[in-house]
């Protein structure tokens, strides 16, 4: 079961989420990969940001920072984030991950879909297709979205897979059937789904889909998911999860 750092390693106070430093810290801690949030700038550059604007990451409060989709990439790149970090491009993160063969989950924002998400997804598809032509086999990417239309538009562009993220309030099996019908290969469930119905993972696996779970920080619960054929767990504490799930030394 792969361990994936959610937004890199957000529980580490030294590294703001969705930065190169956060991604590097997760990979150096032994995580198999990272999940990052992707948005397009005003001039069509893909950068990492979870929120619509950067106020929360800058420390000035949500809604007070530059709006990613309305700001040029050079302006965002010049911002000083905490601890000397900066807003990275997706290309930077993909190159870093490719150097070690790490897995990258690219989540298109906003979660609800819409015009900005469609624009970001189109740019992401073009970027991934171009990288595949120039460096075949270098990237290990799963494209993801909470929005089925957005996720389906990226089916086949991820070099590993394409996933629909299913929020806790939605029916996981119905969502899985819709995902499969739209050409997706994975569904990523909330921990709530598997706590409520332990049999949901094997039923979805029987549909021919892979199953990820996140966000989950309890190593004991994660170990139980591995026994149910979950193929990845996304966690806010990748370093702790890697340590907890490491096989016991022999002898």
TrEMBL record:
Pfam families: GDPD (PF03009). It comes from the Bacteria. One of its GO terms (biological process) is lipid metabolic process. InterPro entries: GP_PDE_dom (IPR030395), PLC-like_Pdiesterase_TIM-brl (IPR017946). GO terms for molecular function: phosphoric diester hydrolase activity. Gene3D superfamilies: Phosphatidylinositol (PI) phosphodiesterase. This is Glycerophosphodiester phosphodiesterase.
């Amino acid at each position: 079961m792969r361990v994936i750092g959610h937004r890199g390693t957000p529980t580490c106070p030294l590294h703001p989420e969705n930065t190169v430093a956060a991604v590097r810290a997760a990979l150096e801690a032994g995580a198999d990969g990272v999940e990052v949030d992707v948005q397009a700038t005003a001039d069509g550059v893909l950068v990492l940001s979870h929120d619509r604007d950067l106020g929360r990451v800058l420390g000035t409060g949500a809604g007070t920072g530059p709006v990613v989709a309305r700001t040029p990439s050079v302006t965002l790149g010049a911002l000083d984030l905490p601890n000397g970090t900066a807003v990275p491009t997706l290309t930077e993160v993909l190159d870093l991950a490719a150097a070690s063969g790490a897995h990258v989950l690219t989540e298109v924002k906003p979660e609800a879909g819409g015009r900005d998400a469609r624009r970001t997804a189109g740019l992401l598809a073009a970027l991934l297709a171009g990288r595949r032509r120039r460096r075949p086999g270098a990237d290990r990417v799963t494209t993801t979205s909470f929005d089925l239309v957005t996720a389906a538009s990226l089916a086949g562009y991820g070099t590993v897979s394409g996933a629909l993220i299913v929020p806790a309030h939605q029916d996981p099996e119905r969502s899985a059937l819709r995902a499969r019908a739209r050409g997706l290969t994975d569904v990523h469930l909330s921990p709530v789904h598997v706590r409520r119905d332990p049999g949901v993972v094997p039923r979805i696996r029987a549909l021919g889909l892979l199953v990820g779970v996140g966000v989950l920080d309890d190593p004991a619960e994660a170990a139980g998911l591995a026994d149910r054929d979950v193929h990845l767990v996304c966690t806010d504490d990748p370093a702790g999860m890697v340590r907890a799930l490491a096989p016991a030394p022999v002898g």
